[in-house]
Amino acid sequence: MAIKKLDSIFKPKRIALIGVSNNPDSVGGITLRNLVGGGYNGVVYPVNPKREAVFGIPCYPDVKSLPKVPDLAVIMTAAKFVPQLVRECGEVGIHGIIIMSAGFKETGKEGKALEDQVKAEKAKFPDMRVIGPNCLGILVPGLSMNVSFANGMPEKGHVAFISQSGALCTSVLDWAYESRIGFSYFVSIGNSMDVNFGDLIDYFGQDPNTKSIVLYVESLAQARTFMSAARAFSREKPIIVYKSGRFPESAAAAASHTGAMASEDSIYDAIFHRAGLARVYDFGNIFDFTDLVGRKRIPKGNRLAIVTNAGGPGVMATDSLISWGGKLVNLSDETMQKLNDYLPPFWSHGNPVDVLGDATPERFARATEIVLEDKNVDAVLVLLTPQAMTSPTETAQAIADMASKTSKSIMAAWLGGSSMREGIQVFNRAGISNYPTPEQAIRAFMTLSHYAKNQEMLYETPKEVPVSFQYDRHLLREKYLKEIFPKAKILNEDDSKMLVNDYGIDTTHPTPAATEDEAVEIAQKKGYPVVLKIYSPDITHKSDVGGVALNIKDDEMVRATFRNMVKTAAEKKPDAKIEGVTVQRMVDTKDAVELIIGTKKDPGFGTVMLVGMGGTSAELFKDKRLEFPPLNERLARQMLESLQIYPLLEGYRGAPRKNIEKLVEALIRMSYLAADYPEIKELDINPLIVTSEDVIALDARIVVDEEVMKNPVKEYSHLILRPYPESLVQSANLKDDSPVLLRPIKPEDEPMWLELLASCSKESIYHRFRYDFYFDSHEVATQFCFIDYDREIAIVAEIEEEGRKKLIGVGRLIADPDVEVMEYAILITDKWQKKELGYIITKYCMEIAKIREIKQLVAETTRDNKPMISVFRKLNFKIRFNEDGTVTVRKDLTEK
C-alpha cells in the first residue's frame, strides 16, 4: 500500500547516500555527518563511484554493489543524473527515495522536462515512493535520524512539520532548538513530485505519537487528496496551515462577477475552512501557534483570563483579544471572593487581574491558581513586567510549579530583555508556552479558538431540506448538452435563466426583441413596468455599457430606451454583436436585499461556489463567502451568516425579515447544478433578489467550458468533494416481503442514527463495537453520520413505520488511505434481526466495494455472533476463529 510504503522513508533500517562527497560543507557531507554523528542506529551506505571511502567510511560504486538492499536511498547528485539513478534504485528493489538535488521544475521549462523524466522512471516501480526533488530532507527525532543538510536535531515531540520551503525549515529548526519545541517528524517536500501533503497527513494522522500537524503551503497540486486526508484527521489532530503567495500580481481575466471575486487565495481559504484546518496569516504566527499546540495542554475553549503585575500590558492584551473577536471571562462570584480575600485591597477587582507591581512570586502563582479553578476559565495568560520589586525567574518557577497541578492551559509573556531570559528558559523546560509580547500570545490563542469554532461549525447537524426537481435531471442534462450548450461559449440570458429555473430557482423570464415594435409588443403582454437589457453574446456586464434600464412604464419609454441602449452599447463595445434587447417583468425590489450567487471552475481545485453582496457594487465591496459543493442546510446557512450584510437578511432596523429558508434552499439547488455540470466554467446570478416572500434571479449568465464539451470528463471529477452518492439508493425486500430502502447515510440522519442505537440491546452493541460503546452524544454521532464518501460509505436500511421514517440497520465500509482494503461492520436492531437484513446489507456493501475497485474486505466479530458468521459464510468470506474469542473474516474481491 502506498501510504504504508512510507515506512521505508520514515522508518528505514538501511540508508544509501548517493552522491556523497568528502567535502564536509557539501549537501552530502553534512547529511552523512548528521546521520553518523546524530545517533541513528541503522546502517548507512555511502555511494560514489569516484571514492573508495568518505570520511573513513567505505564507499560503494553504485546501489547494485551494496551488500543488502537499503530501505531508503537519498540522491544528492547533479540533476541530470537523477532519472538514471531512480531507475537503478527501482531495479534493485529500493522502495523509498529522497531527492535533495535541485534543478527541476523550479528552474523553468528544461527543469520541468527533467522532472517529467524522473516521474516516468518512478512510474515503472509502483512500490516506490519519492520525496522531493529540490528538498532539504527529513528528520525523525524519535529515531535520532537526521536525513537532511540542516544542522542539529530538535527534541522529540508531538508535532509533525511539513514544508514546501527548505529555507523555512532551517528557520523553524533554529527556533525549535531555542524554544525546546519537539517534533515527531520534520519534512521538506520540495517540488512534491510524488509524496504530497495528503499522503503525509494520512501517514502522520495514523501515527499515535503525532498530536498535531503544521503545514507551510506554497501550492496544492492534488487538492482532492489533500481535502480527503485533512478532513479525515483534522477533527482528532489540529492541522495548522500557513499559505504563502496570497496576492498574485496577475490572474486570468474572468467573464463573470463570480470569476472575478473568487480569487486564488479566497479558494485556498475555502479549502482550509471546509477541511477544518486552522489557518495562520502571519509568518511569525506559525511559531507562536506551533508552540501552543506543541505543548502538553491545549485550551478546550476561548474563555481567557489575564493575570498581570501592570495595568498597561493587561490593557494591551485585552485590546488584542477583542480585536481578534475574543472575550474576557467574567470571573465567578466565588473566584472574586477568593481573590478579594487573598490580594491587596488595591488589586483591579476584575479581569484582567492586576496583582500590582510589588507582587511576589507566591502572589503571582496563587492568583493564577485561583483564576484557573474558575469553571468558566479555559486558559490563563500571565504577564510580567520588570519592576523594582519583580523577581522574573522566581516568579516563572512558581508559575511552573503551580502549572504541574492543573490540566488547563497557561500562557506567559515575560516582557523585557536579558533579565527575563532565565525565566523564559524555566517556562520552556516546564512546557509552558511563552511569547515576547501579549499580542503574540493572544494571536496564538485566538487562532486555536477559531480552529475549535470551525470544527464545531463543520459538524453541526443540518436540518433536512426537501429538495425536489420538476424534471428528471439526467434527461435535462442530455437536453442542455445537446441543444443549448453548443450555441455559444457564453450563453444568452434567456438560456442561462432557463437552466437556473429548471433547477428550482425562480427567475424573471426575458424575451428577446430585435426591434422597437417587438419590444413594445412583448412589454404590453408582460405588463408594465418592465426591464430592458441589451441582448448580446459578447457583453457580459450589461450595466457597464448602459445595457440595463429599469422601471419602464409605457410604450414610448420602451421605444426611446431601445434606441438609446442599442446606440450606447454599440459605441462602447464596437466589436460586440448586438441582437437587440430583452424584455422582462419588473420585480418590486422595495425592502429587498441584492445578492450574488455563482460558481466558478478553478483549474486546480474544481468548481467552487460563491455567495455575497450583489448588484453593481459586488466586486467593489467583496463581501463574499466561498464554499465547495455539495452543500447541506447547515453549510448553506453558514455561508450566509458569515456575510457582513447578513443582518439585512434578518431584518435590519424594522425592515421585514427576508425569506432566508428559501435562500438556503436556492444555495443547495445551486450546488446540485454545480455538481451535475462539469461543462459549466462559470455561472453568475447577479442580482438575486431576496424579499420577505421570494428569492428571484433577475439576471444570469453561464460560461461554457468548451474543452470539457469536446472531451467529456469522469462524473464528479470537477468537484474537490464527492457529493452524496444518489446512485447508491435502492429498494429491497426482506424475508417477509417488508419493503426497505437502502441508501448512504447523511449528516441529517443523526437523530435517526441515535434512535437506531438506542433500540439495540447491549449484546447487539457489543457484537458491533466489541466494547460497551457510549453513543449518546453529538460528538460521537458526527463521527458516524458526517463521512467522506471517498473513503467511507455507510449504507442504512430505512423503513416507514406509523407515518415516520426509521433506521433499522447500518453497514459501514471504511477504506485504508490507499483505498485498497475496506473494513466492514454492521449493526441491525434487535427487532429486525433474523429477517435476512444482515445478508441484504452485507451483499450490497460488497457490490459497492467492487464498484469502487476495492481489493479486499475485512471484518471482525465475536464467536457468539452466529447469525453474522452465517452471513459471512454464505457470502464466501474466509473465516478464522481466533484464540481470544474473536472471529476474523476476509473476502478477496479480485477473485472472479
UniProtKB/TrEMBL annotation:
Domain of life: Bacteria
GO MF annotation list: acetate-CoA ligase (ADP-forming) activity; acyltransferase activity, transferring groups other than amino-acyl groups; ATP binding; metal ion binding
Keywords of this entry: ATP-binding, Ligase, Nucleotide-binding, Transferase
SUPFAM superfamilies for the chain: Acyl-CoA N-acyltransferases (Nat), Glutathione synthetase ATP-binding domain-like, NAD(P)-binding Rossmann-fold domains, Succinyl-CoA synthetase domains
Classification via Pfam families: Acetyltransf_1, ATP-grasp_5, CoA_binding_2, Ligase_CoA_2, Succ_CoA_lig
Residue stretches making up the ATP-grasp domain: 497-714
Keyword Nucleus in record: no
Stored InterPro entries: Acyl-CoA_Synth/Transferase (IPR051538), Acyl_CoA_acyltransferase (IPR016181), ATP-grasp (IPR011761), ATP_grasp_subdomain_1 (IPR013815), CoA-bd (IPR003781), GNAT_dom (IPR000182), Ligase_CoA_dom (IPR043938), NAD(P)-bd_dom_sf (IPR036291)
Domain annotation N-acetyltransferase: ranges: 740-894
Family (UniProt): In the N-terminal section; belongs to the acetate CoA ligase alpha subunit family.
Official protein name in the record: Bifunctional acyl-CoA synthetase/GNAT family N-acetyltransferase
Native source species: Mariniphaga sediminis
